[in-house]
Amino acid sequence: MAGQCVLECLQRSHDPIPLPHDKSVMLGRSPETQIVDPRCSRSQVELKVNWKTREISVTQRGSNTSSVDGQDLERGKTVSMSPSSTLFILKGQYPHRVVFSGEEVLTSKVDAVSSSAKEMVTNDVSGKRSHSSNGETEAESPAKKAKLSLGKPEKRSASTKEAKLVKHKDSSGSPTKTLTDYFSHSKSKASASEADEQLTNASNKKQPSAPISPPEIKSKTEPAAQNVTKRKQSHDVSDEDEESHVQDVSEKLKRLKQSAKAMKTDDTVKKNEKGSLNTKSSTSKNMSRSSSSESCSSASSHVKRRVKPATESRWEHPDEKLYIFMSKGVAGSEKIAGFDIDGTIITTQSGRVFPKDMTDWRVLYPEVFGKLKHLVAAGYKIVFFTNQLGVGRGKVRIEDLQDKFEKVVTKLQIPVQILISTSGGSFRKPAIGMWRILVKQKNDGVPVSVADSFYVGDAAGRSDNWAPKKKKDFSCSDRLFALNIGLKFHTPEEFFLGHKPAPFTLPEFDPRKLSPDTPIIADGEELVSGKQEVVVLVGFQAAGKSFFANTYLVPKGYVYINQDTLKTWQKCVSECNKALAAGKSVVIDNTNVDPESRARYIDCARKAGKPCRCFFFDLSISHCRHNERFREIINSSHKPINEQIFNSTKSRFKEPELKEGFTKIVKVNFVPKFENKLHERVYRQFLLEK
Question: Which CATH class is domain 5-125?
Answer without folding.
Answer: mainly beta
